[in-house]
Amino acid sequence: MYALVAFFTTVAVFSFSKAQSDPCRMLIELGLCLAYFPSWGYEQSTGQCVEFIYGGCQGNLNRFYSKEECEATSTILSTAQQARLPEMLAKEAFGYYELLNELFHAKVAALLLTAQVITATAVVLPWRR
């Protein structure tokens, strides 16, 4: 029983610490000082990187020097993106289906052509049997 409690406690602590160390799950903090550092942060509600002015003191890891750096770090899907995910996956799956269908038909056409060449060769050159 104690081992089970210890296990779940460890899992809970690890999950919490993982969420706290992921910059994209943190709120954008402007900082308490009055400096003026243009920065970028990931806004979870919109699922996009937004520009903000960092004051220079405290803050957190959700602060990047460029939009590209922010987008490269942040891989969380917004609610709107999550809602469109089944549609996006269906389109991608259909694209793979079309590709496989084309490859299959190309392979069948190649096999039929090979069979026709073999048949024509057998008809034209009957003495080679």
From TrEMBL:
Signal peptide residue numbers:
1-19
* PROSITE patterns with a match to the protein in the record: BPTI_KUNITZ_1 (PS00280), BPTI_KUNITZ_2 (PS50279)
| GO-annotated molecular function | serine-type endopeptidase inhibitor activity
Which residue ranges does the record assign to the BPTI/Kunitz inhibitor domain?
Answer: 24-74
The residue stretches assigned to a coiled coil in this entry are none
- Keywords assigned by UniProt? Disulfide bond, Protease inhibitor, Serine protease inhibitor, Signal
What's the protein called, per UniProt?
Answer: Kunitz-type serine protease inhibitor BmTI-A
Q: Where does this protein come from, organism-wise? A: Echinococcus granulosus
What lineage is this protein's organism placed in? Eukaryota, Metazoa, Spiralia, Lophotrochozoa, Platyhelminthes
